[in-house]
Structure prediction request, 136 residues.
Amino acid sequence: MGIIVVDGERFLMQLRDQIDGIMYPGHWGLFGGAVEHGETLEDALVRELNEELGLTGVTPSFFTSLSYDLTFAGKGCITRSYHAIHISGATVSRLRLGEGAAMAEFTPAAILGESKVMPFDAYALWLYANRDRLAG
Prediction:
């Protein structure tokens, strides 16, 4: 998943479609998706960002990964990897939304105060926003 940081201070988020069967429809989440056979995590994220936003020429930097257990649902343990991508506001103005209902920029305080955010993405964003404090 891509933690897209705009001008060093805002996160670019995707409003997920209101479709039955997807996780957290109608919630804000990060851009990115599944890894296809033979892809690295970084290759998959670069492909997904191109498909979802038309974003090219970025180099994702690994930040963290989070795992959650869906064994009770027959899906096993799922790990989401988070990579930081830094872009400018000028780059955002050239993006086109290819997937999802909307995209918007949020300050860390605004997105973390939003009630309709995918919880695992919210936690990754909290970690990112507090990375210096946590490392100290």
